[in-house]
Design goal:
The complex is a heterodimer of chains A (about 260) and B (about 200). By secondary structure, chain A is mainly α. Chain A is about 65% helix and about 0% strand. Chain B is mainly alpha-helical. About 10% of the residues of chain B have low confidence. Classes of the chains: A mainly alpha (about 260), B mainly alpha (about 200).
Chain lengths: ~260, ~200
């Protein structure tokens, strides 16, 4: 640091101490007239004050280039918490977004129904439910149950018992009616088998083996069994050892009182 | 910056127990106080703690504010400055960052800022360069003695006039100007040396 304690007296009459006092005003741009001229002349002539002016100007420019820093977002709430102890109502409303009022049905829907529905919507479950519904509807149709009858169902024990016996009698009558038809069919199959022993058609099988397009079952065979021998065996339902066995049809007769 | 009557009313409401008025004061002045603390203390964590302390002290002594004696912002800045001095003494930084005028030779031997900051020769982005520049100036500011530092912070960063600075620092206006000049010159010298070594 140069020694600036002595009062240098330059040719324009300004001393270094005076220059020091005027330096900040000069940088602020408030000097004018003869004072400014003397100041500038001294800065040009004095080997100490000239560099000082340049350095101070540079330092001021650096400092002016500094921008304000942003305080942390939590600073205000921390200050309020440490001074008043509690955050104010306005802060609470700012930090906490207003919750929309929801009904119990919307709440239940969001909490229970939506997750369950998401599971049900999976393809495998949807297919299972579909098949179950189909099987149930077919069963009910066969049993003669109509949806319109459900409203007239009586749940008294005697009524339930009566319904049970009626349904059982209907099933027995159905089997009795079908029995002659089944017996005739069984007899015809036996006669046909005795007269024309079943033979596998190799050529046909070969054709089937070569023509595997457009048929899902055959495509499946191609995927799961790669040999032609298995294809032939699969086409013969009884197999060579069971070919001459008699067909036995069993009918069970049960009577319900 | 502030309408005296509005601030006086705000202070009166606050003293009367109006939490909204206090919140308004905090919202208005937290940025300014945080920036003074950050530039003086150097780190964000210290600045946060100090800002919080300033407001706690302000909250306790708000009734002692006299609008006839000076502007509220000067009063707030005085509290901030006093706490910064206390903080400075507590952390004993004054031994590490002694006055540059008295120990100019120390700075000649000290590690230049160019060795403390990353290479600035090829920053890919102008924003990155600007940020590095700001960091460099901020570091250089921390190298100034506390007397010079507080003077240039209040003048060049907070745009306070010399009279208010003199009131805050409790020194004559001539001393304030002298400190500001020396602080600027010291900073300019440090940064010129730094960038001369980098380039």
């Amino acid at each position: 640091m140069p020694d600036r304690t002595k009062n240098d007296h330059t040719s324009n009459g300004m001393q270094c101490n005076e220059f020091d006092l005027l330096l900040s005003d000069a940088l602020d741009g408030v000097l004018s007239g003869t004072v400014l001229d003397r100041f500038q002349t001294h800065a040009r002539i004095c080997k100490t004050c000239g560099p000082l002016l340049a350095e101070a100007e540079a330092g001021r420019t650096w400092l002016k280039g500094l921008t304000e820093v942003e305080p942390p977002a939590s600073l205000v709430s921390n200050i309020l918490a440490s001074t008043t102890g509690v955050d104010t109502q306005r802060l609470r409303t700012m930090t906490r977004a207003p919750q929309p009022r929801i009904s119990w049905w919307e709440h239940a829907q969001a909490s229970y129904l939506e997750p369950m529905w998401a599971i049900v919507r999976q393809p495998r479950f949807a297919m299972s439910f579909g098949m179950a519904f189909f099987a149930l509807s077919v069963s009910l149709t066969v049993a003669g149950v109509k949806p319109s009858d459900l409203g007239q169902i009586s749940l008294r024990p005697s009524a339930i018992r009566r319904t049970y016996y009626n349904t059982q009698a209907r099933v027995v009558r159905y089997v009795d009616n079908v029995r002659p038809v089944l017996e005739v069919q069984a007899a015809l199959r036996g006669i046909k088998r005795n007269m024309n022993p079943a033979e596998p058609g190799p050529a046909k099988q070969k054709e089937r083996k070569n023509d595997t397009t457009q048929q899902p079952e055959q495509k499946q065979d191609r995927n799961y069994s790669q040999t032609g021998e298995k294809l032939i065996l699969a086409s013969d339902p009884l197999g060579p050892s069971n070919r001459d066995l008699p067909v036995v049809s069993v009918t069970t007769y049960r009577r319900f009182v | 910056m502030e309408d005296v009557q509005v601030v006086a009313m705000l202070v009166r409401r606050c003293i009367a127990g109006d939490a909204t008025a206090w919140e308004e004061i905090v919202q208005t002045y937290n940025r300014r106080i945080y920036n003074i603390c950050y530039r003086f203390a150097g780190t964000s964590d210290d600045a946060q703690d100090l800002t919080q302390e300033v407001f706690i002290k302000m909250y306790r002594t708000l009734s002692s504010y006299d609008a006839s004696k000076g502007a509220f912002v000067t009063w707030v800045t005085t509290i901030t400055r006093n706490l910064l001095v206390d903080h400075f003494r507590k952390t004993k930084q004054d031994r590490m960052t002694d006055s540059m005028d008295s120990t100019a030779s120390d700075h000649e031997d000290a590690q230049p800022l160019s060795e403390q900051i990353p290479d600035q020769s090829a920053p890919p982005d102008a924003r990155v360069r600007q940020r590095e520049l700001s960091d460099t100036v901020h570091q250089a500011l921390g190298k100034l003695s506390p007397e010079l530092r507080e003077a240039v912070i209040l003048r060049d960063l907070q745009d306070m006039d010399y009279k208010d600075i003199a009131s805050v620092l409790r020194v004559p206006e001539g001393t304030v100007k002298s400190r500001i000049n020396r602080g600027r010159a010291e900073l300019g010298r440090l940064l010129q040396r730094t960038y001369r070594q980098v380039m």
